[in-house]
């Protein structure tokens, strides 16, 4: 095995352990980890199979194999950014709805003259 293969395999394994660590600690949700795991698995596959990139380039009709890598990675990044934008929009919409519901509940409580907790946690009469 060539030195660069050993280095990339070691880096991929370290990255897999780091992703697993983040999942176990609850810092990365499983649905987002799938993308990272799939990309790492592909990189590991091409680390073991050196001619695989040339085979894939010929299959897709790309003249140089590195151009295929850059094209595919740019495409994956764009799709992932679109996915994150959709998730962010959904979260923002949910947060707006929750804020409105809290405001309505506070208004309802103040009409009934029940003690309402302010932002600092102390109760006061409406």
Could you explain the architecture of this structure?
By secondary structure, this protein is mainly alpha-helical. It has a domain at 28-111. 77% of the residues lie in helices and 3% in strands. It contains 4 helices and 2 strands; from the N terminus they run H-H-H-H-E-E. It has a two-stranded antiparallel sheet with strand order 1-2. Helix 1 runs antiparallel to helix 2 (30-48) and helix 3 crosses helix 4 (65-111). The model has no long low-confidence stretch (mean pLDDT 88).
Give a summary of the structure in a few sentences.
Pfam families: DUF2304. The protein is mainly α and 126 residues long.
Total number of helical segments?
A: 4
Mean pLDDT: 88
| Tertiary shape | elongated
Largest sheet: 2 strands, antiparallel
What is the straight-line distance between the termini?
75 Å
Helix content: over 70%
β-strand percent reads under 5%
Counting helices, strands and paired strands, the structural category is: mainly alpha
Spans where pLDDT lies below 50 across 5 or more residues:
none
- Total E-strand runs: 2
Question: What letter string, H or E per element, gives the SSE order?
Answer: HHHHEE
The spatial strand order of the largest sheet comes to 1-2
What is the alpha-carbon Rg in Å? 25 Å
């Amino acid at each position: 095995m060539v030195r660069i293969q050993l280095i990339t395999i070691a880096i991929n394994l370290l990255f897999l352990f780091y992703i697993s660590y983040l999942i176990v600690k609850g810092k990365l949700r499983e649905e987002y980890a799938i993308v990272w795991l799939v990309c790492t698995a592909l990189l590991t596959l091409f680390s073991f199979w050196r001619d695989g990139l040339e085979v894939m380039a010929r299959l897709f009709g790309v003249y140089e194999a590195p151009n295929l890598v850059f094209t595919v990675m740019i495409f994956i990044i764009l799709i992932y950014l679109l996915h994150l934008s959709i998730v962010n929009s959904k979260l923002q919409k949910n947060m707006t709805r929750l804020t409105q519901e809290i405001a309505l509940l506070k208004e309802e409580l103040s009409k009934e003259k029940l003690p309402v907790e302010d932002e600092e946690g102390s109760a006061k009469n409406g």
